[in-house]
Amino acid sequence: MARLIDRIIRDPEAEREDVMVWPTHIVTRQSTDIYANNDPHIAEVLKYIHENISQKISVDDLVSLVPLSRRLLETRFKRSMSTSIYDYIIQVRIEKMTQLLSEGMSVSEAAVELGFSDIKNVSRSFKQLKGITPSEYRQQVIQGKF
User: Fold this and answer.
1) Is 53 inside any structural domain?
2) Is residue 130 part of a domain?
3) Does any domain span residue 39?
4) pLDDT in tens, 85-119
5) Rounded CA separation 63/54 (Å)
6) What is the pTM of this model?
7) Which CATH number goes with the domain that contains 133?
8) Which residues in 25-40 are b (16+ Cβ under 10 Å) and which e?
9) How far apart are the first and last CA of the chain?
10) By CB atoms within 10 Å of each CB, which of 51, 59, 130, 138 scores lowest?
């Protein structure tokens, strides 16, 4: 690829060729797009979740951020995001875990980094969402399949 770029820079008339570059992983942007939501309270909760995903996050922590009761927050979150707060936190953690595994972290290092206390729960949740275990995912990343 570098040779092709060099050749084109040196000779703008040089013959071009298509080069296919496969992505290694997807990185979620840390922008306001993640928090785009018509409900400002849900947007605030989403922002907090994404910015603190490596910490232990409870629904009570989120309730303290907004002027809503727990029940109302859970209801509005479910209506807005089509999932429960707890399930959303797990989904974000697993997505972050795939990123960390793709960057070369071990499964146990990634689990600790994301505040998972039990590796069995991590593996079960990961497999439910991704269809394979974290170890299988990491192995496939190493082999270049992801």
Assistant:
1) yes
2) yes
3) yes
4) 999 999 999 999 999 999 989 998 998 888 887 88
5) 19
6) 0.72
7) 1.10.10.60
8) eeeeeeeeebbebebe
9) 20
10) 51
